[in-house]
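Recall the central idea of this unit: under ordinary conditions, the amino acid sequence of a chain determines the structure it adopts. In this exercise we apply that idea directly, starting from the sequence alone.
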Amino acid sequence: MSHSFAKLSIFIVLLFFICTPSKLYSQDKKAVSVEWIYSNSSAELTAIPRYFWLANNTAMLFDLRKPANERNFEIFDPRTGNIAPAVDAGKAMGSLNTFFEEGRQHNVLRWPVFFDAWGRQAVYLFQNDIFILDLSSSKFSRVTETAAAEKSVQISPDGKLLSFVRENDLYVFNIKENKEIRLTTDGSETILNGTLSWVYWEEIFGRSDTGYWWSSDSKRLAYLQTDESPVEITHFVDFQPAVPRVIKQRYPKAGTANPKVRVGIANIQSAKTTWVDFAADDYEYIPRVKWLPDSKQLSVQTLNRAQDGLKLYFVNSDDGNSKFILRETDNAWVNLHDDLIFLNNGKHFIWQSERDGFAHLYRFTMDGTRVNQITRGDWAVKSAGRNPRQTVAAVDEKNDWIYFSALEKASIERHLYRIHSDGSKMERLTEGDGTHAISFSPDGKYYFDTFSNVRTQPSLSLNDSKGKSIKILSEPRPELVEALDFQYPEFFTIPTSDGFLMPAEILKPKDFNANKKYPVIMNIYGGPSAPTVANSWNRGHYFDQILIKKGYLVVRFDHRAAAGISKKFENLLLKKFIGPVELADIIDGVKWLKSQPWVDGDRFGIWGWSGGGSFTLHTMTRSKEFKAGISVAPVTDWHFYDTKWAEFAMKTPQENPEGYKNTSILRHAKNLHGRLLLVHGTYDDNVHPQNAWSFIEELVQANIPFDMMFYPMRKHGIADRAARIHLFNKMLEFWEENL
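Accordingly, the structure predicted from this sequence is:
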């Protein structure tokens, strides 16, 4: 469709709505349904171009607003605003399909797993083999054709080498010479080279299989080698074939042995590994590895079992010898982050710390001497970008500006700021109420801003380093939302008994009448600094639209430890996570809501997923405030969960037996108040079904009726479209029957 024709069409549609009686207008509104939420149509509301900044400060774009068969890679030049095709998509797909038989061919160009730094090559995995697309010729070449699967694919910084993992060994492939080099040879079921064990993948590296790192000169690879042999094995039983297959998972439960991890530095030319020596450091985890800019040194962070002491080392890449730089400690636990930024002057680095109770930035000399605190205040640095643990977006050393994201304006928003390295002249660059996800060009002169708020769909704009908008690459499309008759949340705060103001939001029906009393459904997550209330476009509100049209009010509020405001609030959970601290705030919030004249206090429901599922059970077994609740994939006892997450606040069961006993939801199952729907996937490798089975057994022993829905061979997200549609329709049915 041409641009002018599209504008004319929109004008005609708007004219029709303006000139049509409101009764007919309301009839033409599209109804939001569960089926629509999990259809391709719903994705159109938030579609914006994907992008990748290239080394020459242009960007690769891929416009998801276009139909799949019309999408192509495009080069965007921020200096001129020009956009040009980067590849002939049709020719590329024709080239790719020469490798596949009919019926297994590919119809549309997709975003790759990796681009090289200059946007000349794109790497794909098809049927567990590696393919490279040369963009200049629009031609695919096949790299591997093996029975074993390849994974964790990257391209070296110089674009000449491809790296990947096969059968837990690390390989590189010389693209020009068409030559494969094997860097490790001891990979096995329990020895992992360059790929992560489950607990590292889930809890440390953000569900990214980031197990190795290229030096900037492309001569070395630093990698994690993991020995999983000490880790206990969990089993999952499939429902097929006739004699069901059994799946094994190595999963370290709280208090049991973790995988053993060490760092190797592989020389590409010699294919030999030098192991990093930490001398007497009795570490438990290696949570971060990062090369220094000169490629001669490697930074490695180690963390103890209690997670209250983190050490930073610099390692000589030739001999593996380490030098201690600094130690970060906390009375409860140290949160991981990615704000380790080495300055080009070779004299300083920037580091994030919560040592004053809030996440802030600090400047250190290269020997670990603190120079100064850069940011300060009763707020935290926080990012809404692709890596939420990295808040520093760019550094302009010439003009002494550090660009970072933070909550300074409001705890429910994310904004971009800049500040001098001495902490002076801080200023906010982003405007408008809402959430800004920032990505700078390599030279720091431009940034992309993905912006949304609770009433505005995501947009993508290009801005200069002073915050000035240069070009809008993708505007919101409100006409798509208007056709659905969306209602939007209202933000407010709920006071607790000691005066803390909890961030909150509420969605009301379009015909809300303050003289009526409405049933309420509360959605909760509740983890430390994991708020549910945010001034951003939230796809979770789509399901809420269905609920409010059925006459419910939908509320969310964040207790003090979940709000993300201060590490001081998080630390209140030490040795009693999902316990009395959170419960007191939650009950205060519920009682405050019940005191409102338009709330039917006898019809109050609660639901949540994962941690939210745990809090649903926690509140329903320790209070009588809820008539009904839905708990999806809950942890019911910290003994059943993994070491890294269970122990950060609870420590080990051996160290804190009373804490594990007191926070166990199983002990209070007999006190369940209200009707419960318990949901779990039978292949949940994150929160094992054991959690649900154990809670069910307690309910059976107490002769308490309940409802349950188990999804065969689904993991934690119960993520496939069919299962999601089934689950959320089941939830609607449950609320109608019980609330």
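Confidence is low (pLDDT under 50) at residues 1-27.
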